[in-house]
Amino acid sequence: MSGEARSLPVFRAENVTRVYRTGLVEVWALRGVDLSLSEGEMVVLLGASGSGKSTLVNILGGLDLPSSGRVFFRDQDLSCASDRQLTAFRRDHVGFVFQFYNLVPSLTARENIALVTEIARNPMTPEEALERVGLAHRMDHFPAELSGGEQQRVAIARAIAKRPDVLLCDEPTGALDSKTGVQVLEALYEVNRDLGTATVLITHNAGIQRIAHRVVVLADGRITKDEANAARVLPSEVSW
Amino acid sequence: MRALERKMLRDLRRIWAQALAIALVLGCGVMVLVGAQATQATLVATQAAYYERHRFADIFAGATRAPADIVQAARLIPGVAQAEGRISFQAVLDIEGMAEPATGRILSLPATGPELNLPLLRVGRLPDPDHADEVALSEPFAEIHGLTPGAQFRGVLNGQLRELTVTGWVLSPEFIYTMPPGAIMPDDRRHGVIWMNAAAAAAAMDMSGAVNDIALRLTRDADERAVIAALDQLLDPYGGTGAHGRDRQVSHAFLDGELSQLGAMSTYLPPIFLIVAAFLVNMVLGRLIALERAQIGLMKALGYGRREIAGHYLMLAGLIGALGVVLGWGFGWWIAQAMIGLYGDFFRFPFIIRDWGGQALVVSAVLGMVTVALGGLRAVWASLKLPPAEAMQPPAPPRFSRGLADRALTRFRLRQTTMMIFRSILRWPGRAAITLFGVAASVGVLVMSYFIFDAVERLGDSVFQEANRQHVTLMLSNPQTDRALQDARALPGVLRSEGVYVAPVRAAHGHRDRLTALQGHYPGVELARLVDDAGRVVTLPRDGVVLPEMLARALDIRVGQTLTLEMLSAPRITLHLPVVEIIAQGMGQEAHIAAEALFAAMDSAPQVNMIHLAVQSDRMADLNAAIKTTPAVGGLLDWAEVRRQFDATLSDNLLTMVGIYTLIGVLIAIGVVYNAARIQLAERSYELASLRVLGFSRAEVGYVLVGEIMLLTLIAIPLGWLLGYGLAQGLVDAMSTDMFQIPFHITRRTFALAALAVFLAALGSVLMVRRRLDRVDLATALKARE
Fold it and tell me: Do A83 and B778 lie within an 8 Å CB cutoff?
């Protein structure tokens, strides 16, 4: 992907903090994070458990609000958006992929994707989305009839079917073995390459970082490292 | 307190709303059982004590005029313990402040004090034997008119206008239910009972040394039929109108009918509620504990034994059950209070003997606890069978497959959220069936409750609009020739007059017999017509009799067979007539015949003893005034007043009952739907949160939850209608006495109201649960799998 594509910011986070209060205890999940994400960029978020990766992605994806600081999606301020605005934001602009797939068990692969395409503005067809992740032949199967890798690819197909501006993936390979994980990464890689969808990929698997344009490392709620990858590799070259 | 016990209490606090919903459903079943049994037991005990303390007679007989010493002869009949003779007659009364005349039944009080049917003095004193104009009045009548001791009123006694002075108010076991002659409902305003000195009554009625009313009390081992036969024989020469037991005594028969209806309700309804409640509690509690699966696995991993874990959850179930039973007892007690109060007022019991129906308390407690224990045990057992490691894992994702129904559904190209609803129902048909059954049960209960209104309305229409269209009915003191019709037409405001002849008879067929009345109908009548339950006007055949279904059943007689009718008034002949038609008539008790056939058989000129009048509405006052001074009239019925009484009496009693059952129906619906929705939410929160993440709005996600339950509710409604239809039919069978049969007639309004009430209750409950969706924290809902 080209350098000029990366110059337009999709997300801009300014001094974002997030504090969880449970009873008398305050947990600082994010302690002042600045980050921007450009069009077409693929960023890997690395960090130990509890470093704040998921909190950051949840805030970017409109699932959570920052305690202080501001988050912009293009020129829309997400930090003070209403529930209704956040719902519309997720519906129109964001695709999510989670560690545990989050497929609706009562809907087939195709129907899980139709779930999104029915409410999206300019979606691809469920068949096309499944084709992209190489699962066209499994489209009438229920989640329980698919392997973990297949389920995650269905989840990716569901996430990209709406042609989102940004794809947020929280440990998408976390529950998968290495071989299956690579298949999933390939699907993400191709989507980023072919559709130019800005992608944030959370992992605590350092091996995966090499497929991204940029690697951001979080520790204890702060960004400790943010640097571009000099040489990207293909997912097939990654193993763990 | 041990950790496990502390956990139980905290669990209970966490699920308090669901626990309460379960307890309420169970409580409803317990409440109906306890409430109905306590009411029934209390009224039966009160009735028995009242009869015993006030020596209510066992046998009653009337005669035209019998010598007073016939009482001595009656006392000698084997099986008779006590006998009493008195004078009894009807009088028209003129009460101040009342435009229309009232009627009174005057009874003589023996100078030595009555031995049987002892009047209970409530206010003032009994009449002084030296004062012929002194009377005591039945309390309800006196109370309504404010006739306190010392007050005066006028009565036409044997054609003479007399001024009477009130000395006291009285209650009597004979008149728990006071019915004016010819009426179908008690009427305390227009009809009273008047106790008068024997000498004064005898003088007024020219009955010195004679009696016309005999009451007997039997020994414990007496043969009632034999005594009745002997008494009939004794009174036959003196115009005996047929001796009968308590079963034909108006007050007792109605009270008994009322009590047996109550008894039927207390045996018919509560099991339905308890079964529904038991079923629901069982399933809901089962689901609740199934959700605890991971915790059960953990406890096993920590080394708790099966018995301890089972005991723990059974204790939880037991607490919920105990709450339900206690709530049910409480509400049952409250309902019993309300019902006893209602019936106590209605029947004028001087005292109430409370009976808590202890058996019902025990039975309901046992059933309630067994119900929850079974529900709890079933679920605990399923979890206990799993190895701890597996139990601690979330259950495997449900397997869906594409059955026939599923393929059919796919064709409709439904939205995916709608598909989720259908698939969930198809995947867990058992669970859907419970919701369906529970909601249908509440619809059924409501249909049955509202049906009672329909039945009463139908009855009212039939009696007041189809059969009795006259404004006033005059009861003549003695039969008259049809000239009386012309005299009646000459009364002020009368537009039309029609006569009828009613004679007391003993109807017999085979070895069965029954005291009733034979009505001789004149042709071409327009006011008081013979109408069956379908509203069809019955044309009387030239020969033979027409019987209502209940009488025919009691006599075991069919069309074409011969009925024996022994006339108990002059000319006291016996007729043998074929039964030509049997008609469906819920309230019909009497045999019917064409007047021409009757008088041909009696070999007499046509007579009338009842006259129905159509009256100009603005001349009622004049008519009333005229009747007060017409000696030939022994009593009258103002049908507008009868209708008012009918509506008032029934609406008082019915509104309370229907209110209670509506509450129960709605509570069941809420209990079922709230729990079904909570379980759905607990099991699918992950899935529903995923939808929110994908960009579905709260309303759209709520649709999946609300949609499934409301779809089930909609399917349940017609099932509930069917169930209600069956329940209503059962109720009709259970509550029909040989005096009265409820017409089986359910209106669309009833079906609609029942459906609407349950629909709204369900919608309210599920929306209450839906609000919880708003509070689900999306970020954590996705991370935390179980």
Answer: no
pLDDT above 70: percentage of residues in chain B: 93
ipTM: 0.78
Tally of CA atoms within 13 A in the half-sphere of A21 that contains its CB: 3
Q: Answer yes or no: is A20 within a domain.
A: no
Show the domain range for B517. 494-615
Query: Do B563 and B443 share a structural domain?
Result: no
Comparing CB atoms, the residue among B400, B687, B783 nearest residue A142 is: B400
Residue A34 covered by a domain:
no
> What is the CB neighbour count within 10 angstroms for residue B243?
26
The structure tokens 């229309």 sit at B100
CA–CA separation, B39 and B26 (whole Å) = 20
A20 Cα to chain B: minimum distance (Å):
12
Identify whether residues B604 and B645 lie together within a single domain.
no
Q: Do A88 and B695 touch (CB under 8 A)?
A: yes
Which among A11, A214, A172, A29 is positioned nearest to A94, based on CA atoms?
Answer: A11
Helix (H, G, I), strand (E, B) or coil at B305: coil
Q: From the list B416, B693, B779, which residue is nearest A107 (CB)?
A: B416
The pLDDT of residue B96: 84
The CATH number assigned to the domain holding A226 equals 3.40.50.300
B486 contacts chain A (CB < 8 A): no
Smallest CA–CA distance from A120 into chain B, residue:
B695
CA distance to partner chain B, nearest, from residue A67 (Å): 15
Partner-chain residue, chosen from B420, B694, B782, that has the shortest CB–CB distance to A116: B694
Asked if A118 and B695 come within 8 Å (Cβ–Cβ), the reply is no
Q: Which of A100-104, B325-329, B393-397, B663-667 has the lowest mean pLDDT?
A: B393-397
Question: Do residue B449 and residue B569 come from a single domain?
Answer: no
What confidence tens digit (pLDDT) does each residue in B208-253 have? Answer: 999 999 999 999 999 999 999 999 999 989 988 889 999 888 889 8
For residue B187, is it within any domain? yes
Domain stops at, among B206, B228, B255: B206
Among B residues 149-168, those touching chain A with beta carbons less than 8 Å apart: none
What the block records as the tokens of B580 is 């030509």
B443 part of a folded domain = yes
**The tokens 């470093």 sit on which residue?**
A51
* Residue A24 counted as domain residue: no
Half-sphere exposure of B737 (CA within 13 A, CB side): 17
CATH of the domain at B595: 2.40.70
Q: CB B397 to CB A143 under 8 A?
A: yes
Q: Which chain B residues have a beta carbon less than 8 Å from that of A54?
A: 779, 783
From A63, A90, A140, residue closest to B779, measured CB to CB: A63
Within a domain: B244: no
Determine the average pLDDT of the residues in B333-341.
87
Q: What's the domain count of chain B?
A: 3
Task: Give pLDDT tens digits for A139-186.
Answer: 999 888 899 889 989 999 999 998 899 999 988 888 888 888 898 899
Neighbours of B577 (CB within 10 A): 19
- Among B401, B692, B694, the residue with its CB nearest the CB of A115 is B694
Give the bridge partners for A37, in sequence order. A11
Question: Does residue B502 share a domain with residue B460?
Answer: no
Q: Look up tokens 């009952």; give the residue.
A: B657
Instruction: Give the pLDDT confidence score for residue B690 in this predicted structure.
Output: 85
Q: Do the Cβ atoms of B691 and A63 come within 8 Å?
A: no
Same domain flag for B601 and B654? no
Domain boundary, last residue among B190, B206, B222: B206
